[in-house]
């Protein structure tokens, strides 16, 4: 048989999955690995989906998404972050943020062009760049700096083939929130070198210390920035598969063109539910965010008490403790912790070379489970 696509065959399977394949065969595992809220989608959002089903909203929508939903997305960006987009020409409803990322990279890149990706970062960033024909160029961030992006290191990585910079803030896996001065410096760098910016802001509402900065609202950024967001995290709507992108009209128009031929539209029922999420579920979202904040403080305090160096994450729902004191590398630590104490975490190396010496722990699980997990981690560390 003739060989299959060489770009795709060269991409390894997700490094996260191996540990959960092991965990699936074990009993009494506490999983701190999956980046998914443990909350059920709030009732009023589910009820909007049920209403949509009962009233036959099972058809395609317009390719760009329901006008009411796009209006609400843009109004929310304007009121919350002073980021202004035209819902008719600069906003596209996508099938999750994952599709939005894929669309943005396909539209921005020609084959062989480079995208600078600060890491540790979400596991899909580099593969999606490659799927779009580009080349990811990793730039390390450091725990000692709170995983803030080193703008000088980014600039040193720019070549004539560099086309864009891809960032996530708040970040998966570190929980880092990029300081406003770093974002401003990145925009200035992009202006100097005529680069695009792709900003994954799916965790925007999960910002605990200070206020989230939307990159599209930073002076000078708007005309070269694609902002990605959605409903999976703060609204606990992972399975509904609905997100959005906001970008200047020339970029948004081409993203829509690819979307028309590949996805057509996000699910009608999910869009109806997302309308309710924005229009009527603010109280429920605020309650979930407050609960994550409580878990964050309890969990990080517990990790420190059992001997792990763990900065308090400023956003998302992940802790990224250093496990160097254990004397184990990240892969060995995660595998032994799973097999010996039935606690599933993700080795930091899954998210890039700078993740060595760390593991990712999601605190999007019930507080009693988190407390038991900390106790088991302490037992594991004491035996080493």
From TrEMBL:
GO molecular-function annotation terms? transaminase activity
Q: Which InterPro entries match?
A: Aminotransferase_I/II_large, AspAT/PAT-like, NHTrfase_class1_PyrdxlP-BS, PyrdxlP-dep_Trfase, PyrdxlP-dep_Trfase_major, PyrdxlP-dep_Trfase_small
Residue limits of the Aminotransferase class I/classII large domain?
Answer: 28-377
Known EC number: 2.6.1.-
UniProt-listed Pfam families: Aminotran_1_2
- Required cofactor(s): pyridoxal 5'-phosphate
Keyword Transmembrane annotated: no
- What is this protein called in UniProt? Aminotransferase
Q: Which family does it belong to?
A: Belongs to the class-I pyridoxal-phosphate-dependent aminotransferase family.
Keywords (alphabetical) are: Aminotransferase, Pyridoxal phosphate, Transferase
């Amino acid at each position: 048989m003739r060989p299959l696509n060489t770009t795709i065959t060269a991409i390894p399977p997700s490094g996260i999955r191996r540990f959960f394949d092991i965990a699936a065969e074990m009993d009494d595992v506490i999983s701190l690995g999956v980046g998914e809220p443990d909350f059920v989608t709030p009732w009023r959002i589910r009820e909007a989906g049920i209403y949509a089903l009962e009233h036959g909203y099972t058809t395609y929508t317009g390719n760009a998404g329901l006008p009411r939903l796009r209006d609400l997305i843009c109004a929310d960006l304007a009121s919350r972050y002073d980021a202004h987009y035209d819902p008719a020409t600069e906003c596209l409803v996508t099938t999750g943020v994952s599709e939005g990322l894929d669309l943005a990279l396909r539209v921005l890149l020609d084959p062989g062009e480079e995208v600078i990706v600060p890491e540790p970062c979400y596991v899909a960033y580099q593969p999606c760049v490659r799927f779009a024909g580009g080349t990811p160029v990793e730039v390390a961030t450091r725990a000692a700096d709170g995983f803030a992006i080193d703008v000088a290191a980014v600039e040193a990585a720019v070549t004539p083939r560099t086309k864009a910079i891809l960032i996530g803030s708040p970040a998966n896996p570190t929980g880092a929130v990029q300081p406003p001065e770093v974002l401003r410096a990145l925009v200035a760098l992009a202006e100097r070198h005529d680069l695009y910016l792709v900003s994954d802001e799916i965790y925007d509402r999960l910002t605990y210390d200070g206020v989230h900065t939307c990159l599209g609202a930073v002076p000078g950024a708007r005309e070269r920035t694609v902002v990605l967001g959605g409903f999976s995290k703060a609204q606990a709507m992972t399975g509904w598969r609905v997100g959005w992108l906001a970008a200047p009209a020339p970029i948004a128009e081409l993203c829509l063109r690819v979307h028309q031929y590949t996805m057509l539209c996000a699910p009608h029922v999910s869009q109806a539910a997302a309308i309710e999420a924005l229009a009527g579920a603010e109280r429920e979202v605020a309650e979930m965010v407050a609960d994550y904040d409580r878990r964050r403080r309890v969990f990080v305090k517990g990790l420190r008490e059992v001997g792990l160096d763990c900065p308090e994450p400023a956003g998302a729902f992940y802790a990224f403790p250093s496990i160097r004191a254990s004397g184990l590398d990240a892969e060995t630590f995660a595998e032994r912790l799973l097999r010996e104490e039935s606690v599933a975490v993700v080795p930091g190396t899954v998210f890039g070379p700078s993740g060595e010496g760390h593991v990712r722990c999601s605190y999007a699980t019930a507080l009693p489970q988190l407390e038991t997990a900390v106790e088991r981690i302490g037992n594991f560390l004491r035996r080493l």
